[in-house]
């Protein structure tokens, strides 16, 4: 496999007496979808936040594209190309697709060569371009996001990440709030990110999603990485066994 | 893969056309205003006249100016309850500075200019404090500005030593104030013609009664403020960020918008347009009054709501507030002309506000229906 784009080594994070992440090694390679699995409190979200800069790990290093980003602020890490798409998507639902792709980075033009105004048609056009690249069809680009479906909104969030040259996309439970057809569409989007050679870290509780798109499963339990399984070797049974911890103890797997 | 495929469309189609609903909810207030004007024109003698329209416009300026800043605040899902008294504070401050400077021997023009400057400046203070409380200390806007309501009220009355007006404005000063506050850029006088800047002194008493102000100064000044702030809100990056904050403060923060600074500026803008209203009030009535904007506060909120601005933030525009202010002014004048007790205007405006909110909710409900298929 090609060289890793992201490498976390020996990352630890404590909250008071609790060890949320315990000397974790974690790597992501170009064009791979890595599923990060584990029970509630296993440390998935904390690990992700150590990568995206929201938390500062107490020990360990995070290297992205050859640069040490361990103690950089979230905005800097984002501008280096790590885009995190949270469950709430961080979109302004009262505005249209163009405005959302350019949120906080609006393009302006000079009206009468003098007054700076937002260049809405340019932003809409650019947004339409990136949506086309992702093969996403949204009926009207002037529609407010509130009129779009959950999957379409998810798509807008992904399109925004793409437009601003994301080189690694982290998605936290992207299908949790969606109906079945919409879930399928989001999975297809994840595949098209992979086809564009953009790696994805996918946090999910939905076994079906993970089996459908992930190339590799990293399973965490009590702050540690307990398994790292390529898709070819993974079955739901093995994964669940690692999640609940019975694999280590040699007990029989309990299917949930 | 395509989001919004044929099967999606089939499901979404039966529900009412979103664009039509949006058109209706956006323009019902315009249609309502038009309907009111037609109704009063047909039923009230003297309603349909240049003279009356110009008077309605002049009446509407106080509420309109306050509702401009209020619109910005409401779009960010806030509210500013203090601006009624900010109008008074500004009026009183302007009056005192003018009076004292003129009494000290300064030119009337200089005294007026300094007074206006002081009146506008003092109005920024409550705005700034409101902004700091809301943005930095995270006090809910309702509470922060309710506190400021009391503080500014007290400050305004302290400046008049507890009196209802600032006393001691010289006759010369009052005359100069009236020239602007009750003046017009262009007059029309029957059997005389159009006159610029000043009502001619040599008119017969019958002619004086027929003078129409075509472009009253308060209306022109208000129009200018409307244009500037409507432009900023609708077209500038600052305006766009205002809507982003109203839509999702979290999204605004994550996208790198300086939300705290933005909110502070917005409350300062709200104080500023109230300050302009206060200064204009003094010019029109030639008396600095602490309670100048007291009754207009809730009307300004009403104007904003009637104009389609969503109290939960994220939606609205200045033209809506303008139309809302005009609806209130037309109702006030129209009911008087029809000889209906002016108390009825409160009831009618109240009903209109409730209709406005219902229309807004209807839109939200339909949007929900459409996105949740």
Descriptive key words:
heterodimer; A: 256 residues; alpha/beta; Rossmann fold; six-stranded mixed sheet; four-stranded antiparallel sheet; 9 helices; 12 strands; disordered C terminus; B: 373 residues; mainly alpha; ABC transporter involved in vitamin B12 uptake, BtuC; three-stranded antiparallel sheet; 72% helix; 3% strand; globular; disordered N terminus
What's this entry about, in short?
The complex is a heterodimer of chains A (256) and B (373). Chain A is an alpha/beta fold. Chain A has 9 helices and 12 strands.
Summarize the structure in words:
The complex is a heterodimer of chains A (256) and B (373). Chain A has a single domain (6-249), classed as Rossmann fold (3-Layer(aba) Sandwich), CATH 3.40.50.300. In chain A, 33% of the residues lie in helices and 27% in strands. Chain A is built from nine helices and twelve strands. In chain A, helix 4 crosses helix 5 (150-163) and helix 5 packs parallel to helix 6. The longest helix of chain A has 16 residues, at 180-195. The relative contact order of chain A is 0.17. Residues 250-256 of chain A have low confidence and may be disordered. Chain B has a single domain (46-367), classed as ABC transporter involved in vitamin B12 uptake, BtuC (Orthogonal Bundle), CATH 1.10.3470. Helices cover 72% and strands 3% of the residues of chain B. Chain B has helices at residues 6-12, 18-43, 50-75, 83-103, 108-135, 141-159, 171-181, 205-210, 217-235, 237-247, 249-254, 259-285, 296-306, 318-337, 343-371; strands at residues 186-189, 193-196, 212-213. In chain B, strand 1 and strand 2 form a beta hairpin. The two termini of chain B are 19 Å apart. The A-B interface holds A 75, 88-95, 99, 103-106, 108, 111, 115-118, 135-139, 143-144, 146-152, 155, 181, 185, 188-189, 192 and B 1-5, 7-9, 18, 231, 235-237, 239-241, 243-244, 246-248, 250-252, 254-257, 314-315, 367, 370-371, 373.
């Amino acid at each position: 496999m090609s060289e890793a784009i992201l490498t976390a080594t020996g990352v630890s994070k404590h909250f008071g007496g609790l060890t949320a992440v315990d000397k974790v090694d974690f790597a992501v390679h170009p064009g791979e979808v890595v599923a990060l699995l584990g029970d509630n409190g296993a440390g998935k979200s904390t690990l992700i936040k150590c990568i995206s800069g929201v938390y500062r790990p107490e020990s360990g290093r995070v290297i992205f594209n050859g640069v040490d980003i361990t103690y950089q602020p979230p905005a800097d890490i984002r501008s280096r190309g790590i885009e995190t798409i949270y469950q709430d998507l961080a979109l302004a639902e009262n505005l249209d697709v163009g405005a959302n792709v350019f949120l906080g980075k609006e393009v302006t033009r000079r009206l009468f060569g003098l007054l700076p105004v937002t260049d809405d048609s340019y932003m809409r056009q650019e947004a339409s371009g990136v949506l086309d690249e992702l093969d996403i069809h949204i009926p009207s680009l002037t529609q407010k996001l509130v009129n779009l479906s959950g999957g379409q909104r998810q798509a807008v969030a992904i399109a925004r990440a793409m437009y601003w040259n994301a080189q690694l996309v982290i998605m936290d439970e992207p299908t949790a709030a969606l109906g079945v057809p919409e879930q399928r569409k989001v999975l297809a989007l994840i595949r098209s990110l992979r086809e564009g050679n953009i790696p994805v870290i996918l946090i999910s509780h939905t076994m079906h999603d993970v089996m459908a798109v992930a190339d590799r499963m990293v399973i965490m339990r009590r702050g540690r990485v307990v398994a790292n399984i390529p898709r070819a070797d993974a079955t739901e049974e093995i994964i669940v066994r690692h999640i609940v911890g019975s694999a280590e103890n040699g007990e029989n797997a309990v299917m949930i | 893969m395509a989001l919004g495929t044929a099967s999606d469309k089939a499901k979404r189609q039966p529900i009412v056309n979103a664009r039509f609903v949006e058109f209706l909810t956006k323009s019902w207030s315009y249609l309502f205003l038009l309907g009111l004007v037609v109704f009063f024109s047909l039923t009230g003698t003297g309603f349909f006249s240049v003279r009356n329209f110009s008077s309605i416009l002049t009446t509407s300026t106080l509420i309109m100016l306050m509702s401009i800043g209020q619109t910005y605040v409401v779009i960010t899902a806030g509210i500013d309850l203090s601006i009624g008294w900010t109008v008074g504070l500004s009026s009183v401050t302007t009056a005192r500075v003018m009076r004292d400077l003129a009494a000290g021997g300064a030119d009337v023009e200089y005294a007026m200019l300094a007074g206006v400057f002081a009146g506008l400046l003092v109005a920024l203070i409550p705005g700034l404090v409101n902004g700091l409380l809301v943005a930095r200390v995270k006090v809910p806007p309702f509470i922060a500005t309710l506190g400021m309501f009391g503080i500014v009220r007290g400050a305004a009355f302290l400046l008049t030593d507890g009196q209802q007006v600032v006393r001691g404005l010289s006759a010369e000063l009052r005359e100069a104030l009236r020239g602007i506050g009750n003046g017009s850029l262009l007059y029309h006088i029957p059997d005389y013609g159009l006159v610029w800047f000043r009502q001619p002194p040599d008119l017969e008493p019958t002619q004086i009664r027929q003078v129409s102000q075509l472009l009253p100064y308060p209306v022109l000044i208000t129009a200018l403020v409307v244009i500037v702030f409507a432009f900023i809100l609708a077209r500038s990056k600052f305006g766009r960020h205002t809507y982003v904050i109203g839509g999702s403060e979290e999204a605004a923060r994550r996208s790198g918008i300086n939300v705290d600074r933005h909110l502070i500026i917005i409350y300062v803008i709200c104080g500023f347009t109230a300050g302009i209203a206060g200064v204009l009030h003094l010019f029109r009535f030639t008396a600095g009054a602490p309670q100048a904007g007291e009754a207009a506060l809730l009307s300004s909120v009403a104007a904003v709501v009637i104009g389609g601005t969503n109290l939960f933030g994220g939606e609205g525009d200045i033209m809506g507030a303008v139309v809302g202010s005009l609806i209130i002014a037309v109702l006030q004048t129209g009911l008087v002309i029809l000889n209906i007790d002016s108390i009825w205007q409160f009831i009618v405006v109240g009903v209109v506000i409730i209709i406005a909110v219902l229309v807004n909710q209807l839109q939200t409900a339909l949007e929900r229906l459409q996105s949740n298929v």
